[in-house]
Amino acid sequence: MKHTLCTIVALFVLMQSLSFVSWAVMAADEANPYERPVQQYDRWQRSQEDLIWNFHNMYQPCVIELPDTPFPYLMWFFGWATADGNPDIPGCDAIYHARSKDLKTWEIWCGDDQWDTEMNPELWAPVLAASERYYDAWHNGDPSVVYRDGRYYMAYSATSEPYHKKSHDHLDGQLLCIMGATSEDGIHWTKTEQPLLIESEEAQNAETTDKHICDFHRPSLMWHEGKWKLWFDYWNHPNGVCMGYAENTGEFGAPDAFVVKHDLRTEPLIKNWPNPDVVIIDDKYHVFADPVGYPPTETHSESARTWSSRALCEAVSTDGLQWRIKGYIPPDDDTPACQVPQTLLTTISGERRLYLFYSTQRGGAPTYDFRYNRIRAMWRAH
Q: What is the model's pTM?
């Protein structure tokens, strides 16, 4: 049955992806993304070396550093290891784990304390997958991990199964939310008893999304100034995918502990800003996302032009709420698009560096393949 559903999964995810693209285009008109500047290609140091590869479709490589440990760099990423929909595990998307000594050579967890060093995704085992809860039954992804006081904390995206909702303009009937999880070792996780952020009952039961804030997703988690800070994206008609912000001054998984700190309807932090990831450098916040608006590659397909128009983009802020766009980052010269950014601020050989991890899209013509095939990183000195 699961294998039969994989074809349905692939078609659904493709429709979902195209729906997301159309939403982003709607947001483009309001946010004027084509007027956003483009950074110089050589502002970032790029080796274009693949860190993790040979998988079917995986992305969102969240990396943290634990100094003075045998493997000081830890990564969580998600998607499909060997086939559309991960046919051998619950739900659809799942989260996986990798470790490295040098940010270059990575090994992936395979279960039972086994690690793959040969990039054989058939051996990989997820560390987090769907549960039986209706809002967590399909997609587990977009991991954002913080290590604090000997424990790992994760915020991640979760969804219901397709067509859970009546409204088909609500991501084909899916309910989206942000879940939490904690772990002692980064591998075995306990999910929070309820979502960190989920739309209101009124929004969940609405026939359309026109009058509701919904689809909380793609979190960026931080512990700073004695509290949890959480940036995320959400759906805001007619502005499309926007960035929001919430804080938690109490326990990580306590009910209703994450409180939104601005009016999501009238004051989105940035319009047209999917997949945000926030890092603090000195006295400024930097956020990276992959909105539409980068000059698209000329192809024969409208969907291909739209997909290749999504590019890594940077904004800066002094308070995490008011942002200034710094501009798009051109993709690597051997791929149509680099997307889904994640950051790491670290010191290498006495030099402080900001690493930007990302995935490369397959692309191609005449049919554009939206799946990701490589995880890479670029960096610049700070």
A: 0.93
